[in-house]
Amino acid sequence: MNGMQALSVAQLNMYVRALLDSDVNLQSILVRGEVSNYTRNARSGHVYFTLKDSGAAIKAVMFCSNADKLDFRPEDGMRVLVFGRVTLYERDGAYQLYVERMVHEGLGAAYLEFLRLKDKLQGEGLFAAEHKKPIPKYPERIGVITSSTGAALQDILSVCSRRYPAAEIIVCPCSLQGDDCPSSVMRALERLDDGTMDVIIIARGGGAYEDLSGFNDEALAKAVYAASTPIISAVGHETDFTVLDFVADARAPTPSAAAELATPSIAELVSWLDALCFRCIGALQRRLNESYSRVDSAAVRISPVRTLAEKTAKLDYMCDKILTCIVNRLQRERMTVDKLSASVNACSPMAALMHGYGLVRAQDGRNVSSVDMVSRGDRLSVRLKDGEIYCVAERTEKL
After folding, report:
1. CA distance 394 to 48
2. Could you give the CA distance from residue 14 to residue 84 in angstroms, rounded to a whole number?
3. Residues 171 and 244 in one domain
């Protein structure tokens, strides 16, 4: 011990803490265990407990700002999953776990990661209302990112066709589940976010929480935030939430609701035109009545009577002509809307299905437009007006 310099207890604890804090593996750690000796300080609001299993235990603390976010009340004996960091509490010389997030063990790591990422992105301002882009009222082109074979796509097409057939729907298929889900959605977003779309819908049906984990991806969230086109998120059921829902410009509870949010109702537009027509006619009638009143008042003071009668007749003629022009203009606008609706409906693929035609798709989702795209033994689906037929090609014949 000769020549060895003695350390104070504070210096020793400070050194050990520096060692723990320098270990990156201890700064973001997920631990499973059982809650014991759970208490919450009435004054500070901080939570103190022991996390243990059959072989060991560790002291843990959860500060008030994090404890207030808990959506359940921890109790002794409860199995939990916690996320946090490990360091040394210098005053007592004891290392402990500083918990940032805690969930029931049954919810799993995916939900805990969702909460962690949600807090991180919210702190970076990605959810701020001032960054949300408005959804256009009358879109000409609507981009849809979803599976080409899922029910979500059919729901969106059906609603858009019924509400606003004038809009063109551009579908960009992608993977909605698994490890490649985030990158697949980002590639589809990159293709559609080229300035030609008025709004983009990202949609998929419901599923287990783990099935939606691809939409709790930081890179995907930042890609949606950086997109120039307004984006509507419609992932899962009404009670499901993902990070995508918070970063998108609008969130819809279902794919059908997303289609309604993206489109106006053509029936409501026609009703609005009718109401506008009646208001214009009423306003013109009031102006005419006011003019007649002024003419009648002037007749008492102005002579000769013949001149007054000529000007009154001219006024009647001009008023009738103006009224006729307004009515004709409104009728032409109404006819234009009706023709546009009929023309779009006639061109719709869904309209062709009503006349006995079918939409043929290959097993990989491609639309089949030529026998050159089909080989013997290929599995095909044929979309009819009321459902789909699944079949296998026995042979092909070129016409």
Report:
1. 70
2. 20
3. yes
Cross-strand bridge partners of residue 52:
34, 57
Q: Are residues 250 and 361 in the same domain?
A: no
The answer to whether residue 165 sits within a structural domain is yes
Q: Report pLDDT for 345.
A: 62
Phi, psi for residue 101 in degrees, rounded to 5? -140, 145
Neighbours of 354 (CB within 10 A): 11
Instruction: Please report, for the domain that includes residue 89, its CATH number.
Output: 2.40.50.140
Tally of domains in the chain: 4
Specify the pLDDT at position 299: 63
Query: Mean pLDDT, to the nearest integer, of 234-246?
Result: 83
Contact status, residue 197 vs residue 217, Cβ threshold 8 Å: no
Pair 80, 104: CB distance under 8 Å:
yes
Buried-state track 169-207, b at ≥16 Cβ within 10 A, e below 16: bebbbbbbbeeebbbbbbbbbeebbeeebbbbbbbbbee
Indicate if 149 and 211 belong to the same structural domain. Answer: yes
Instruction: List the single range of 72-86, 96-110, 132-146, 190-204 with lowest mean pLDDT.
Output: 96-110
Q: What average pLDDT does the structure give for the chain?
A: 85
What does pTM read for this prediction?
0.52
Phi-psi region for residue 391, left (φ > 0), alpha (ψ -120 to 50) or beta? beta
138 and 171 belong to one structural domain? yes
Rg (CA), the chain: 34
| Span 264-276, average pLDDT | 81
Q: Which of 70, 92, 123 is the last residue of a domain?
A: 123
Lowest average pLDDT, out of 190-204, 232-246, 256-270, 311-325, goes to 311-325
Q: Does residue 258 share a domain with residue 145?
A: yes
Residue 111 has φ and ψ, to the nearest 5°, of -70, -40
DSSP annotation of 201? E
Could you tell me if residue 200 is inside a domain? yes
Q: Are 236 and 181 in contact (CB under 8 A)?
A: no
Strand 29-40 and strand 47-52: the pairing is antiparallel
